[in-house]
Amino acid sequence: MLNVNEVTFAYQNKNTLKSINFSVEKGAHTCIIGESGCGKSTLLKTIYGLLDLDEGNIYWNNEQVLGPAYNLVPGHEKMRYLAQEDHLMPYTTVSENIQKHLSRQQAEFSEQRTQELLEVIDMTAFAKSKVKNLSGGQKQRVALAQVLAKEPELLLLDEPFNFIDNFRKNKLRRDFFNYLKKQEITCIFATHDSTDMLGFADQALVMKEGELLANDSSENLFNFPPSKYIASLFTEVNELDLQLFEGFKEDGKVLIYPRELTVAAHGNLKVNVIKSYFNGSDYFVEANCKNSALVYFNSDKLLDEFSTVTIYCKEELLIKRLQKD
Ligand SMILES: Nc1ncnc2c1ncn2[C@@H]1O[C@H](COP(=O)(O)OP(=O)(O)OP(=O)(O)O)[C@@H](O)[C@H]1O
User: Where in the sequence is the signal peptide annotated (predicted)?
Assistant: First the structure.
């Protein structure tokens, strides 16, 4: 189990992590999400022991993680950390890059283990290719195999799928996280991509400006977003006065995703269409409503510019999404 207690850290005088507290159970997959510069990479580095904390402490299985001031070789031996930039050997093959990271005990069955890892990252066909000839996404997959090679207890991954095209990403993520579950490897990964969080994280940590805003399941955060910032991590979101909806007189704002508003003959919100954007399965529509607030919703049909339509949102959803403050 990982325990992060009141962790505070500043680069020079810039406070980057502010009293961060959370824990991660063995075998759990935890995602750190938040806007660029909020401190995700810095948090991963502190957990790995690459930075000396200003305040607080970190424990992995009751053993304190110490920074470079206390360790000749920074980085905890039971953990593996994958930074955003890769550290592959360009002039050797994919297999050799993986084998270099196997432990001594694994050396006698290195062929078999390398083969197993090549399958996890779907790179069997590239085993003998030189790394310098691979694409950015392929290199990222080799880097993932390297950090798995020594069977770490805790994996720390910084944006592990950001160079991988959507075409391969889905299968890779399923294979990769299923492998981690099977081996009971705990994993903490930083991402910008909410689909990484929704599909593959047991626990989501939301950061903003060095603070931990939320620690919950991604399902809860999606269904009951505590703020617009958190809802916006998933998709575009409407923040509207509840009073705009017919039948509601209470003050307060509601957070509603565009897909939760549908065009209906007897809707509860009248809007004027500004523009429709085709997105493959339907149209994403930008519109204005009574107080000239912008509203976004999805429509099966192309809606004419300047036309007036009514849209509908379920009343129980409006009540559920009423923001507390
Ligand atoms: N070595 C450094 N020296 C000084 N400031 C740094 C250093 N590394 C990061 N920072 C600053 O600390 C803040 C947090 O950076 P960090 O890389 O942790 O953010 P992040 O959430 O991982 O961002 P991104 O999503 O863009 O990777 C940023 O303002 C960044 O400019």
Answer: none
